[in-house]
Amino acid sequence: MNKIPVLEIFGPTIQGEGMVIGQKTMFVRTAGCDYSCSWCDSSFTWDGTAKADIRQMSANEIWEELKAIGGEGFSFVTISGGNPALLKNIDSLVDILQQNHIKIGLETQGSLWQDWFNKIDELTISPKPPSSGMTTDFNVLDTILSKLELNERKQNNSLKIVVFDDEDYEYAKTVHARYPAVPFFLQVGNDDSKTSDDGQLLNRLLHRYEQLINKVMLDDSLNDVKVLPQLHTFIWGNKRAV
Ligand SMILES: C[S@@+](CC[C@H](N)C(=O)[O-])C[C@H]1O[C@@H](n2cnc3c(N)ncnc32)[C@H](O)[C@@H]1O
Ligand SMILES: Nc1nc2[nH]cc(C(=O)O)c2c(=O)[nH]1
Ligand code: SF4
Ligand SMILES: [Mg+2]
């Protein structure tokens, strides 16, 4: 079957995270994940609660829907999930987007490789810290990062670690020390990703952002790093598909 399981197609919005934060983009969110992070803000992609909303779509159908929703108002598409790296046939979607001169971002956790990673313009790998309950297979991560390094295309890669607590922070330092040449982002963890009280959430996240900044500023082992919030949560809270 040549279809891609899709849960959401939305935008244009801004990329709220990481290496191209602020970028105007459409999103394609695939269903299914090989992880089950304790704090996943998109758990509906894998926990069965949105099973009825999954659509099996061809790459062409996804492209048509992107145009139907986004009109002429986009030149960038971000593929996220779930873990899009579970899906070999995203290759066909990547090809269609490139034929139409659309730049492509990818969000994935670094547990699986696909050859189509080589065609992604802005590739974010987000290994998971201890608080997620997941364990990083550093052999796999090494392989993925060395494949990207060998890639001749001039693409941009980055590592982005979400931090919830001190143990996560130490984990982030380990990852940065292992791959010092890869652009490195720290992201504030949202520990209340179900609340609909946007005001309270904003206060909480701003406070946590300040704490993370303060910590990094005093830390000589994290110098060439960028510390970011999830900008979209500041604006839209925990709302879905924004
Ligand atoms: C929902 S995931 C989907 C892509 C891929 N599975 C991954 O984890 O990289 C997209 C991004 O959201 C981050 N994320 C998920 N839950 C979060 C939370 N509660 N707070 C902050 N970031 C979160 C992930 O770490 C990842 O960088
Ligand atoms: N605006 C916005 N930015 C994002 N960056 C990463 C997202 C994701 O869920 O992968 C995301 C998202 O869902 N919305
Ligand atoms: S890897 Fe990403 S989508 Fe999968 S459970 Fe973790 S945060 Fe959620
Ligand atoms: Mg998200």
Written description of the protein model:
It is built from 6 helices and 9 strands, in the order βββαβαββαβαβαβα. By secondary structure, it is of the alpha/beta class. Bound molecules: S-adenosylmethionine, ligand 2KA, iron/sulfur cluster and magnesium ion.
| Measured distance between first and last alpha carbons | 30 Å
Class by helix and strand content?
alpha/beta
Oligomer: single chain
Which ligands does the model contain, each kind named once? S-adenosylmethionine, the ligand Nc1nc2[nH]cc(C(=O)O)c2c(=O)[nH]1, iron/sulfur cluster, magnesium ion
Tally of separate helices:
6
Mean pLDDT across every amino acid position? 97
What shape does the CA trace take? globular
- The total count of strands amounts to 9
Strand content: 15-25%
In helices, the fraction of residues equals 25-40%
Helix-strand string: EEEHEHEEHEHEHEH
Low-confidence stretches: none
Radius of gyration equals 17 Å
Q: Could you describe the largest sheet, including whether it forms a barrel?
A: 9 strands, mixed
The strand line-up of the biggest sheet is 3-1-2-4-5-6-7-8-9
Cofactor: Mg(2+); S-adenosyl-L-methionine; [4Fe-4S] cluster
Family: Belongs to the radical SAM superfamily. 7-carboxy-7-deazaguanine synthase family.
Enzyme class: lyase
Protein name: 7-carboxy-7-deazaguanine synthase
